[in-house]
Please model this.
Amino acid sequence: MLDENPDSPDWWLLRLGRKLRKRQGRLDEWWRYYRGRPMLPELPKNAEAAFVDFQRKSRTNFCGLIANASVHRLNALGVTGPDGEPDANASRWWQANRLDSRQKLVWRVAMAQSVGYMSVGPHPTRTEENGRPSPLITAEHPSEAIVETDPATGEPYVGLKARHDDVDGYGYAWVLFDDTVFPYRTTERCYGRRLPWGPDSWEYIGKSDQGEPHDLGILPLVEFARMPDLGEDPEPEFFGVLDIQDRVNLGVLNRMAASRYSGFRQKWIKGHKFRKRIDEATGLTVVEQPFVPSPSAVWASEGENAQFGQLDATDLSGFLKEHESDVRDMLIVSQTPAYYYAGDLVNISADTIGALDILHVAKMLEHIASFGEQLETVMALAAAQAGVPADYTEAEVRWANPAHVSLAVKADAATKLKSIGYPLDIIAEQMGETPATVRRITAGAASQALLAASLLPANPAPTAGNLPEDGTGG
Model:
């Protein structure tokens, strides 16, 4: 049985594991919204069975659009040293761990479920020149990772990674400190991804009661929280518009119902005498219906004053205007550019796009400031794992410009920067090039300048024919 004394590794295992389980319901709800599968809109009870299919078809996924609109603008290009020069080690670790693509996994889960994680550890096969294992950087899901922060400093000081192994059926967990790791395994096989968190459900499987030490000096689990408010838990990118999303789905459902029932205009007749008969099975009086809609049918009545007609179709324009208004509210509240839902925007100019982008770009810059700090921590962990004595907490993370700028505008800006004396490497950074590409550009420009200088004609040596008139030869 585990030790439940406070601050012991066993106690942290149960505490953080239960926090994982507690937030799982919220993660599932947010994931359903991100995937466009929230709870079905509600209808009156007597119509529920008839409208289940309508309920399913009425869901329109704007939450996924809002989250991905931010993910598309978040693109870290690489890490440079404190002096702004490209760092060879950081670039090598970046490429070896495929962070150009894996970063998107973290950004997407942070936008969709409020938080994402990266963990750093020893690579099982790659080694550095000094013989130490190379750093392995992996993306972690918030349903399998969590950290606890120190209430005094706000810094993370203990973390938990937990997962279910589909091969052997056991659950595995690691309680992480800045110098030690404590591994655990469930006492019994568990099926499904829901891990048990009782004191009798886990057993310690480490070789030493003191845990397995590491020399990283930092908690090897880095949290990327999506813009949390002070003292509050982080929330997904679309959290503020969940009610509007439900309203949109309900409005679509009402429009579909109205459209379906007005697809065939309701007919009416007066002045016709209908025949009646007794139903043998029920004994009830049943009215015979001789008027069956058909392209080839001709309706006729023997009544002297019989009249036929049909009801007007339902006007759906009100539903459409309501839908446009709700979607526009979603985009405004979530600070997503209006051109993602074009509507009446036709042939808009680049200046208009820039104006519509202002709030969205401001939000992206806030994400970049937060995530950039955490990426620096990831690089510091990678350096510690590789045994490289460098302080990457003072490094700089290069990000692509979150604003949409055409190539012509970029080229014009670069030309103007060059004309006022900006160096080529700074201009290349402003163009959104990666640190490795900046190095190639500057190296190529330097080699071309050297070649051009070598092709210039040499100054001729003084001779009798080219001496100055005063004969000094100076």
Notes: Residues 358-386 form the longest helix (29 residues). The chain has twelve helices and 15 strands. The CA atoms of residues 128 and 134 lie 5 Å apart.
